[in-house]
Amino acid sequence: MRSSRRRTLGAVAGVAVAALALAGCAPAGEEGAADCGAYEAYAGHEGTEVEIYTTIIDPEAALFVESFAEFEECTGITINWNGTQEFEAQIAVRVEGGTAPDLAIFPQPGLLAKFAGNGLVAAPADVEASVDENYSPDWKNYGTVDGTFYGAPLGANVKSFVWYSPKTFADNGWEIPTTWDELLALSDTIAADGTVQPWCVGFGSGEATGWPGTDWMEDIMLRTADAETYDAWVSHDIPFNDPAVATAIAEAGKIIKNADYVGDVASIATTTFQEGGAGVVDGSCAMHRQASFLGGILVEDNGAVIVEPTDTETENGISVFYFPGTSADNKPALGGGEFVAAFADRPEVAAVQLYLTTPEWNNKKAALGGWFSANLGLDEANVADPVNKVAVQILKNATTFRFDGSDVMPAAVGAGSFWKEMTAWVAEDKSDKAVLDAIEASWPAE
């Protein structure tokens, strides 16, 4: 997909205006002319092209292309957006065949790491400095391989959400909990009242049944253990049945295996996560832990309306609050995101990579809708979606950010025994120890 620069004036006049604009001095008050003063740092690359290779396709791709329009007009760099669903397979083919893209947007850091020392170019000093200024160290670490920084963060997603109905909470006088203990106390209060089930939980997802249980474990591991222990668990530097992991699954069981909170525990294995979330919409349950993408499903399938947390009047209105840590100061976040790394060492490529790290581009992109990032300069006023707005707040306040651990573990575990054993944990009431021992035994020999 090739982007095209905006043309707002006639052909002859356009040439004159473009020449002035590239110098950062478009005529004041010229209707349609870009304000190119903000792009002076990227000048000097007129007539060049930069390919961005990515998994992101239309309709989302169109908004990315739109976000570059002024940059292209003012710098003379044409950005060729090449989105494909075959990215993960084809990126290796292109690199090995000598046709690597200029920039690639990697959907996870593990894939990026495979190309360190195999075509990737270390990020320039000004890109690294911008990431140091505009992102938390956790995000920079995910773009770093063996001490070399390659990939700058792009978009983000957050999983540390609890979905709820602001109207239901207001009608019952329930307060949003800010700690894990408060969350359990609220669950007790709702259970004692007896009119609404405190939690709806579903692990069902067809052939992928069990993955919602892994998300619960990962989120709680970040709350009961420190970041270093979480990393050691994911990389198998500690065994899967380590005492730290046993603590996490025991805490998860305080909600998931508590019949007073969830009803029939065994039915969690056959209840889809979508069905679990639907309980928040129809009022049959108070809370459901799930990532941000759930909102679109509930709007489409269950007539939900995404509202601000302050909207306590809308029927079928749903929103999210932060899945709390062990204390009000403990604010870990689980999620994911993309990273932009270069295969070409050309100044125009470095200019585009730098621009994508700036608050200016991040705010421009967010204002187009349906997207957010972990950029510390992102203004929440540019994020219209209420759920994305909460996500930005979570990312800005996060004491620790970590990627979904099961996505990084070997597939035999992360998309295999971990899913299977979490399902058995609820379906068969398999013990914590038996679950963790079985997953440990399944870890591939190194």
TrEMBL record:
Keyword hit for Transport: yes
Keyword Transport: yes
Pfam entry (one): SBP_bac_1
Signal peptide boundaries: none
Record keywords: Transport
PANTHER family: ARABINOSE-BINDING PROTEIN-RELATED, OSMOPROTECTIVE COMPOUNDS-BINDING PROTEIN GGTB
Family per record: Belongs to the bacterial solute-binding protein 1 family.
Name used for this protein in its record: Unannotated protein
Source organism of the structure: freshwater metagenome
Classification of source organism: unclassified sequences, metagenomes, ecological metagenomes
